């Protein structure tokens, strides 16, 4: 049997500090290598210079020899203690000794060659029957005790299972404590529904009281739970919560954008509302559902109070109105944003009727539902709570708590009064909601204009692609104007960026147009359609072998066409025998005229006209009736006209 012992030798990894600068930076000394460390240890040994044994003088006296011998013994012992690996060698030797002893003991116990362990022999003593009976009685008693303990455990497990089937006050109270903040106040248990720990400063206490249900009270079965962590079960609850009267029922915030009493977009800031069954309105809600509804009401009240306070403080061209539970802000002329706090109680006689009306309204407004508004209301208040707890650095040890980071540099940078006032400005929640409402209106109007143009104008085609990754105040759409069957020849792209107070359009050539009204977008697209048709005909002429004599996209605006600039093109056939003039305006459409030069058999030059090319002078343009041409699109008709005029 062989044993292997792993011996680990660990050296110090800490570097020695060589120098500490004034700014507190420590400079460490580079550690020595193994060879350098060995040389350093060797240099520590003091090698005295004594003559060798062979060179000693024979004539020295006996006393001198004895003194030299004593000094050598002392030096040898001194040098042995200075050996750097002496302690390691001793530890290894001791470990080897202990392992050897352990190996010997194991060999003795296993092979039993050196030692035999025999049991102690008992004397033959006569055992009396009474002693044997007492021993058996004790054995039977121990066995009975073991069986009784097992039966007791089974009975207790059965009782625990039966107890778990019925409601337990303490277990249910522990479940409540896992989800809600509870504390003991005297002989009662008080809970907290507020958002103070999340950073809220709303003055409502939001306290509720937890009581044990009386045994004589008949409890209704627990309703299915929609939004919490409480598991769905059919057991009656032994806990009863008492909440303030103003937090009973359900509450939500209704946001709508109206134009002349017509709803353009709407949204409801609501949570999974746990409502009783419409067939039985007397059913009492479970404590988990009741507390969730109360906390949702508290959240909606805090949000509405903050929006109402901001509506009074902010200065807008048209002041915002706060009337009861409604805030009215003006987005655009004749377009208003209405924020309403709705609260309903379970004791209301019109509960069922209001639910039916609310369901019908939601069905009617399902196509105009805008969920971004309700999500923004919830998110903005959460951001306020977060900023109340997470203040920017530095902390109050060196600066005021909650100070804006830009104001930290007011002193070192020497800001003036105007710059300081700019740093104090911050956008309120209501202003952000108003900007989002303005964006909703502009986006809806832009969609309506583009869809109407795509429906009205079939030639060319207008294809729009809205980006799916947009923000609450910015959206973009890419518009491609193409002619059916001539997609590879030419296409006109447009990129429209919809903001809060205007629209920015980027054209094909990179020019940017800023539109203050949505109606201007329609005229701009019509102008781009005219330019697209002329540019496509320009490319078609190159493919057909025709020469473009002149082409312009800004030929002026006439009295009959005030919607935008008119585009025109003049092209000639390969032999200069035919001329085609195409004019396209945003409102009048396309006008095509053709001119042909007279074909004379003989040409007689005179003193005025000597060159033969002057015989190709046209005799006047004639308008082409495009409606009578049996072709699908305008470009197809012009292509057919070019092909007919070439031969």
Question: What does this molecule look like?
Answer:
This protein is α+β, with helices and mostly antiparallel strands and 647 residues long. Helix content is 38%, strand content 19%. It has a five-stranded antiparallel β-sheet with strand order 8-7-11-10-9. It has a five-stranded antiparallel β-sheet with strand order 12-13-14-15-16, with helices on one face. The longest helix has 37 residues, at 129-165. The chain is elongated.
Distance between the termini: 112 Å
Enumerate how many helices there are, as a single number: 13
The counted number of beta strands is: 21
Query: How much strand?
Result: 15-25%
The average pLDDT score comes to 77
Radius of gyration: 49 Å
Coarse shape: elongated
Which consecutive residue ranges, at least 5 long each, have pLDDT under 50?
A: 49-65, 75-80, 216-234, 276-283, 349-356, 362-367
Question: What class do helices, strands and sheet pairing give?
Answer: alpha+beta
Biggest beta sheet attributes? 5 strands, antiparallel
Portion in helices: 25-40%
Strand order, main sheet: write it out.
Answer: 8-7-11-10-9
Write the layout of secondary structure elements.
Elements: E1 17-20, E2 26-28, H1 34-43, H2 62-82, H3 86-111, H4 129-165, H5 169-179, E3 181-185, E4 188-192, E5 207-212, E6 239-242, E7 250-259, E8 262-269, H6 287-313, E9 321-323, E10 326-332, E11 335-344, H7 351-364, H8 371-389, H9 410-413, H10 417-424, H11 429-456, E12 461-466, E13 475-482, E14 491-498, E15 503-506, E16 512-515, H12 519-544, E17 547-552, E18 567-572, E19 578-585, E20 589-596, E21 622-623, H13 634-646
Antiparallel strand pairs: 1-2, 3-4, 4-5, 5-6, 7-8, 7-11, 9-10, 10-11, 12-13, 13-14, 14-15, 15-16, 17-18, 18-19, 19-20, 20-21
Helix pairs in contact: 8-11, 12-13
């Amino acid at each position: 049997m062989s044993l292997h012992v792993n011996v680990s030798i660990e050296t110090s990894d800490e570097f020695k500090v060589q120098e500490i600068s004034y700014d507190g930076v420590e400079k460490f000394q580079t550690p020595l290598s193994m060879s350098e460390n060995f040389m350093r240890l060797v240099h520590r040994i003091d090698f005295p210079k004594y003559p060798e044994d062979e060179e000693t003088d024979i004539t020295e006296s006996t006393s001198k020899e004895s003194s030299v011998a004593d000094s050598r013994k002392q030096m040898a012992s001194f040098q042995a203690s200075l050996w750097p690996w002496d302690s390691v060698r001793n530890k290894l030797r001791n470990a080897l000794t202990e392992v050897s002893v352990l190996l010997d003991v194991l060999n003795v116990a296993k092979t039993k060659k050196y030692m035999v362990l025999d049991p102690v022999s008992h004397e033959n003593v006569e055992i009396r029957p009474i002693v044997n009976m007492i021993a058996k009685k004790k054995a039977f008693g121990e066995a009975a005790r073991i069986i009784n303990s097992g039966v007791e455990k089974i009975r207790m497990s059965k009782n625990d299972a039966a107890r778990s089937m019925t409601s337990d006050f303490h277990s249910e109270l522990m479940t409540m404590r896992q989800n809600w903040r509870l504390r003991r106040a005297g002989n009662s248990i008080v809970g907290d529904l507020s958002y103070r720990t999340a950073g809220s400063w709303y003055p409502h206490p939001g306290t509720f009281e937890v009581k044990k249900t009386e045994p004589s009270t008949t409890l209704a079965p627990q309703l299915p739970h929609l939004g919490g962590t409480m598991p769905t079960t059919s057991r009656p609850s032994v806990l009863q919560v008492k909440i303030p009267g103003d937090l009973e029922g359900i509450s939500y915030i209704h946001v709508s954008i109206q134009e002349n009493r017509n709803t353009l977009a709407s949204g409801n800031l609501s949570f999974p509302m746990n409502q009783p069954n419409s067939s039985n309105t007397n059913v009492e809600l479970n404590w988990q559902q009741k507390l969730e509804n109360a906390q949702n009401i508290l959240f909606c009240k805090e949000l509405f109070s903050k929006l109402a306070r901001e509506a009074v403080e902010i200065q807008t061209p048209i002041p915002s109105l706060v009337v009861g539970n409604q805030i009215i802000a003006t987005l655009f002329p004749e377009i208003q944003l209405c924020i309403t706090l709705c609260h309903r109680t379970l004791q209301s006689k019109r509960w069922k009727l209001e639910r039916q009306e609310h369901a019908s309204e939601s069905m009617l407004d399902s196509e105009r539902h805008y969920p971004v508004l309700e999500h923004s209301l919830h998110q903005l208040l959460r951001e306020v709570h977060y900023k109340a707890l997470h203040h920017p650095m530095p902390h109050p040890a060196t600066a005021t708590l909650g100070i804006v980071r830009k104001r930290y540099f007011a002193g070192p940078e020497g800001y003036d009064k105007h710059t300081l006032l700019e740093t104090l400005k911050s956008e309120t929640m209501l202003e952000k909601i108003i900007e989002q409402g303005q964006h909703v209106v502009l986006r809806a109007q832009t969609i309506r204009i583009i869809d109407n143009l795509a429906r009205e104008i079939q030639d060319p085609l207008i294809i729009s692609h809205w980006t799916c990754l947009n923000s609450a105040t910015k959206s973009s759409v890419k518009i491609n104007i193409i002619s059916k069957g001539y997609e590879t020849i030419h296409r006109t792209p447009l990129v429209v960026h919809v903001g809060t107070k205007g629209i920015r359009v980027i054209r094909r050539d990179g020019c940017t147009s800023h539109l203050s009204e949505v109606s201007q977008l329609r005229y701009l697209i019509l102008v781009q359609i005219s330019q697209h048709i002329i540019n496509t005909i320009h490319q078609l002429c190159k493919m057909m072998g025709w020469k473009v004599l002149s082409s312009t996209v800004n030929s002026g605006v006439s009295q009959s066409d005030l919607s935008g600039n008119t585009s025109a093109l003049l092209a000639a056939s390969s032999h200069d025998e035919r001329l085609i003039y195409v004019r396209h305006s945003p409102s009048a459409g396309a006008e095509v005229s053709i001119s042909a030069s007279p074909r004379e058999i003989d040409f007689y030059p005179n003193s005025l006209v000597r060159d033969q090319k002057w015989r190709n002078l046209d005799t006047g343009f004639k308008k082409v009736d495009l409606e009578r041409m049996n072709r699908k699109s305008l470009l197809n008709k012009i292509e057919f006209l070019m092909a007919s005029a070439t031969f």
